[in-house]
Amino acid sequence: MRSTLFSRRDLDFLLYEWLRVEELTSLPRFTEHSKETFDGFLDLCEDLATRYFATHNKRNDTNEPTFDGERVTIIPEVKAAIEAFTKANLVGAAMDEQIGGLQLPAALEAAGFAWFQAANVGTAGYLFLTVGNANLLAAHGTPEQVDRFVKPMVEGRFTGTMCLSEPQAGSSLADIVTRAEPRSDGTYRLFGSKMWISGGDHELTDNIVHLVLAKIPGGPAGTKGISLFIVPKFLVRDDGSLGPRNDVALAGLNHKMGYRGTTNTVLNFGEGKQTPDGLPGAVGYLVGEAHRGLSYMFHMMNEARLGVGLGATALGYTGYLKSVEYARQRKQGRAVTAKDPGAPQIPIIEHTDVKRMLLAQKSYVEGALGLLLYCNRLVDLEHTSTDPETKHAHTLLLEILTGVAKSWPSQWCLEANNLAIQVHGGYGYTREYDVEQHYRDNRLNPIHEGTHGIQGLDLLGRKVTQHDGASLRLLAAQIEQTVLAASDAGGEWTEFGSQLDAVWQRLLTVTGWMFGSGDIAAAMANSSIYLEAFGHVVLSWIWLEQALAAHGRDGDFYEGKRAAARYFFRYELPKTEPQLDLLELMDRTALDMRDSWF
């Protein structure tokens, strides 16, 4: 029986038939691996996700964490699942062997972790943050910091968080006020409050490693004055044993509509309730250089943006698979051409409008998965390239795609969840079925790691123009190669290639026009529309790539790929035309709106 969590067949197609990730084993970093080890890793992830994560997903949602003023209580299945994950050494799946990792490609790690996000995104959240925290410190921490904090995270003894937002600042990190006062011993004492900190307090592991953005008094104003600090829940002695509790206090839990199994916290640093040496403030250790904290944090944030996109995809994907299964089993009505009212009812999957909704879901989730795995393969190529120019090219291409890989699945795989509810009919709105929870969980992803508005401003305001448009030119070259391959394939793929090329060329023209107008305020006012149009063009390219990988192959799976590609080109890509019209007009409707008019 096929899993309704995720599709192993689709993963195999994307990884091996399209992206050919087994070729990565020829690189020095991955020589210890083979297709067999890749398959074994994917098998393990599917098994653990099915046995330890999916089995408590609904209970995790209905019995969310509680705080009695002293301790956080979480259902025991969460700890058991995290222990199963960490005992399999999956925290370090893509990390270096020298710190205890498996040194697998990032593309494989993403494919494996998607199983856990689809099975139980609430429990997977603790692990998602820990992996990102450990990767940041492995890249920017000192050897002593790696030994003291990263290795215990890889071993599963510690978990990690990222502490950015503050109640008064939100996404405007220039306005954070948490301060870090230097001490003579080289440590710092932190004072301030952080909001919306996922995984910020629990007793699932021995310790929690907080990565905290703060400002050192006397530093530059704004974001240039932000530094990054390690602030553990419990101090760690030189021999690795746990010391006294640090001055980090849980002020309370936030209760969100989704991700209910992940503690979401308000943390106070330097409140004075816990002081390891009688002096006020939470003990913190500077990461890297002072005032460069935001650049270090972007290492984790950009990784997290891909992870959020992957989580949105996984939630959309499992909702899609469950709605397909339901549509095959649920009998209702008869064909529109049926004349006999006494004829047996048919499965609703035979109704055209249900097929349309399922096909839309398929095009969203399989397209998004392709984009996320493509981006993670770029991570592998970036990390392993020995030629500086080639390495830089992979970096630039990844940078222009990261915001799309976060935002597009957060919007359209959420729409897949919406359609999954609709396919279930009245049952879709009940807690008897999983799809209403998947929608609630996924509804958080449009705000995770930067809203659509932030991603749109970043794409139009920075990424398409950086290095004199180098990132945009690199993406253009990739799309051009695909269009040429489609031309060689002939038939409808040549037609779709021409359609993609025409829309892409228009997007480039509109981009130039927006900047050439000189009205930067009007251009930025339309950046969210630009992001949506840009994303749909990128996904059309990903779908043409998948269609070409399936070209000439027989069987239901490949026919499904071709049908989804047709759907995207015929139903979705044309949506960009009115958006491009609007962008070309440099519309000021929203920009000129006044507070008093609302």
Provide the descriptors you would attach to this structure in a database record:
two-stranded antiparallel sheet, alpha+beta, eight-stranded mixed beta sheet
Q: What does this protein structure show overall?
A:
- It is built from 19 helices and 12 strands.
- With 598 residues, the chain is of the alpha+beta class.
- It has a domain at 453-593.
- A hairpin with a 5-residue loop joins β8 and β9 (242-245).
- The protein is globular and about 85 Å long.
- The mean pLDDT is 96.
Q: Uncertain segments of ≥5 residues (pLDDT<50)?
A: none
Helix segment count?
19
Radius of gyration: 25 Å
Distance between the termini: 54 Å
State the helical fraction: 55-70%
- The proportion of residues in beta strands is 5-15%
Structural class: alpha+beta
Summarize the structure.
With 598 residues, the chain is α+β, with helices and mostly antiparallel strands. It has 19 helices and twelve strands.
Q: Helix and strand layout, with pairings?
A:
Layout: H1 8-18, H2 35-53, H3 57-62, E1 66-67, E2 72-73, H4 76-87, H5 106-119, H6 121-140, H7 143-155, E3 158-163, E4 179-182, E5 188-198, E6 207-215, E7 226-232, E8 234-236, E9 242-245, E10 248-253, E11 264-269, E12 282-286, H8 293-329, H9 352-384, H10 388-424, H11 435-442, H12 452-463, H13 466-489, H14 491-516, H15 520-525, H16 527-550, H17 556-572, H18 576-585, H19 589-592
Parallel strand pairs: 3-6
Antiparallel strand pairs: 1-2, 4-5, 5-11, 5-12, 6-7, 7-12, 8-9, 10-11
Helix pairs in contact: 2-4, 2-5, 5-6, 5-8, 5-9, 6-7, 6-8, 8-9, 8-10, 8-11, 9-10, 9-16, 9-17, 10-11, 10-12, 10-13, 10-16, 12-16, 13-14, 13-16, 14-16, 14-18, 16-17, 16-18
